[in-house]
Amino acid sequence: MSTILAHLSDPHVLDLRGVPLHRLLLNKRLTGWINLRLKRGHKHRPAIVEAMMADLRALAPDHVAVTGDLTNLALEPEFEAARAMIERLGMHPSQVSVIPGNHDLYTEGARRSGRFGTFFEKYITSDLDLAVDLPGGRFPFVRLRGDLALIGLSSAVPRLPLVSSGHLGEAQRRALREALAHPEVAARVAVVLSHHPVVDPRGGLRPYLRGLEDIDDFRAALDHGRDVLALHGHWHVSGHEKIRASSGATIHRLGATSASLVHDGPGKMASYNVYEIDRASGLVRAHSRVWSAARERFEDAALPDGAGQTG
User: Fold this and answer.
1) DSSP state of 254
2) What is the DSSP letter of 258?
3) Using one digit for the tens of pLDDT, what is the confidence trace for 122-137?
4) Cα separation of 46 and 260, whole Å?
5) Does the pTM exceed 0.85?
6) CA distance 119 to 40
7) Average pLDDT over all residues of the chain
């Protein structure tokens, strides 16, 4: 019997209750707060995220993966609200895996505090002791769940305003290679979670401003001779791209759009992805559950071909 994995990303939970004004104005959060006031806050709808949690409860997948940017400004009330959102799934923490995005380590203060790892400790536990200490917790974690070996990475690092690029680092990439070679992982379908995708966004300075600094080394680590599912968020575009690795194996790049985003663009309307995975056959089926504004519900839709997307 196949395993059903649901994948959502980038809910961008916003909660500023009790936050003093100086925490919004005296660091990088100033540009983020202005963006919220002028643009982002009108496009990201908390009510859609709540509807998604209800839809997921009805679907009852075997596991849920969340690939980062749970918060907007990495503030404590946002982390509390994001954790409460996850808890409303009604699933045991062993059935939900969460990794940080750049918004979850938005400032140096968020990095130093280890805020992400503190609030989501139950969702980043590991069955194999391969992780290294990082600002958001210990990564990569490895969670062995039936047909799946979920490997959670952290590519999130604080950046200057208007920069959202990521970095894995040699220690984490080495641990990723060790995880993929482990017999318990090799006996399952490897599902790698990263906020930043395994391909760069196209166009101008986008790779430098929004991409992954060590992307070539990341892709080389994923090329371990067997097919792998590489789940990500960050771009706010859903899609499935099949990348042929040098070994002949396939890297399935599976992107999820923002869970809260209202957008008319292809693959950008709030949605989550659903994957049917079998230990022997790998990825059997992939589709989306997309928010219909007209009918106020999530509906099945084909997962767009991700090749050529710019992010």
Assistant:
1) E
2) B
3) 999 999 999 999 988 9
4) 6
5) yes
6) 24
7) 92
